[in-house]
Amino acid sequence: MRTTVGIIGAGPAGLLLARLLHRAGIESVVLESRDRAYVERRQRAGILEQGTVDVLRAAGAGERMDREGLRHDGIELRFGRRRHRVDFPGLTGGRSVTVYAQTEVCKDLIALQLKEGGPLLFEAEALGVEGAEGDRPRIPFRHQGREDVLECEYVVGCDGFWGVARKAVPAGVSRVFERSYPYAWLGVLADVAPSHDELVYARHERGFALLSMRSPAVSRLYLQVPAGTEAGQWGDEEIWDELERRLETDDDWRLERGPLTQKSVTPMRSFVHEPMRHGRLFLAGDAAHIVPPTGAKGLNLAVGDVVTLARALAHERQTGSPELLDAYSTTCLRRVWQAERFSYDMTTLLHRAPDDTPFDARLQLARLERIASSRAAETDLAEAYTGFPLG
Ligand code: FAD
Ligand code: DHB
C-alpha cells in the first residue's frame, strides 16, 4: 500500500489531519488499532476552545456541533463554600468555549472520512515506523491478521501517549520533560440534568471536584482520588456523597443525583517530547505531549498541532518550500508549553497533594482570592482557558 501521508491513530488528531489534508487535495491513509465502536465510545474530553470550534466548522465538520454543542460563556470557581464566576467574553473581548464531547467530534470526523476521504482502516495496528530519516518512510502494520506495509512520503504519529511513533525517534535525539502527580481523576457519566448551567471547578480540603456535562440531560463529574485508585473501589452513592461534600456552598445550591452509566479513572501527567519532528516523521497530539486534564487543553492542543502540520504540508506541495515543515516543531512547542504551564497552574491551584502543608493550603486560597478580586489575574485565566492563538 502506498500514500502521501501515512497517519497512525484515529483519535481527534489523526482524524482531523486526514480531513484537513483531504480538503487540501493531499492523499492520506489512516491506520487505527481499535475498532470503530471503541473509538466512538471512549469517554474523554468535553471542552472545545473557540479556535477548535472554528477549525472544525471550516473543515466542514461543524454541522452537528453547531446544533448540539453548548456555548459556555464562563466557569465557576468554588472554594471556601463560596462561588466565583469567571466571565469569558467580558474578559477576553468576546471569546467563549463549547461543550461538545470528544466522542461526538470523532463520530463526525469518522463519518466524513468514510464518505469523502481516503482510506481509514480500523483494527489496523502500526508495528513501528521505519526509514524516518530517508525519503520513503514506511509503516509496517497488521490488519485483519495480515501483515502489510504502508509506504509514504511523510508519516504522522497521532497514536496517543502509548503509541509506537514516538519510539522511532532515536534516543540521542529525544528530549523528554515530565512530571507525575500523586492523584488521579475518577470520572463518571450520570443520567441527570447538570446541577449548574456552567462548569464548576471546586477546591476543597478533601480534594478537587468538577461538575461538567455532556448535554442538558447528561452530567459528567470528576473527583480527585489517590493515584493508583481503581474505579471499582468507589460505590455509586459514595461518589455522590463525596461530590456533594466537595461542591457544597453556603447558599441553597443543590447537587442532583441520578444513575451512573460509566465510571473510569484517569491518571494525571505532564509530558513533552522534543522535538516533534524527526526527518519525515511528525508527532502530533498526545503522542508528543500530555497535560493534566484540569485546564481542558489536551484535545485542543492536538487540534492546534494538526492545523499547523496540514498548513505546512500544503505549503510544501504548493511552493516546494519546506520552510513551514521545518518550523513545525518550534511553532507547536510554543503553544504546547503555554498549555503545559496553564494546566499545571490549574492543577496545583485546585488539587490537594498528600504532602501539602497548611502553608500550601493557605497559598492556594490566596491564589484563588487573587483571581476573584483582580481583573488582571482573572483575565489571565480566561485568556488561557478560552485558548491560545494558533501559531
Ligand atoms: P488519542 O485520542 O489518544 O488517539 C490516539 C489513537 O491512536 C487511538 O485511537 C489509539 O487507539 C490509536 N493508536 C495507538 N497506538 C496505535 C498503533 N500502534 N497503531 C494504530 N493506532 C494506534 N482535552 C481537552 O482538550 N479538553 C478536555 O476537556 C479534556 N478532558 C479530558 C478528560 C479525560 C478524562 C481525559 C482522559 C482526557 C481529557 N482531555 C481533554 C485530553 C484529550 O482527550 C486528549 O488530549 C486527546 O484524546 C488527544 O487526541 P489524540 O488524537 O492525540 O490521541
Ligand atoms: C471536562 C474535562 C476536563 O478536563 C475539564 O477541564 C472540563 C470538562 C469534561 O470531560 O467535560
Automatic annotation (TrEMBL):
Keywords: FAD, Flavoprotein. The keyword Flavoprotein applies. The keyword Cell membrane does not apply. InterPro entries: FAD-bd, FAD/NAD-bd_sf, RIFMO-like. Coiled coil: none annotated. Residues 2-343 form the FAD-binding domain. Pfam families: FAD_binding_3. NCBIfam families: PRK08243.1. This is 4-hydroxybenzoate 3-monooxygenase. It comes from Streptomyces achromogenes.
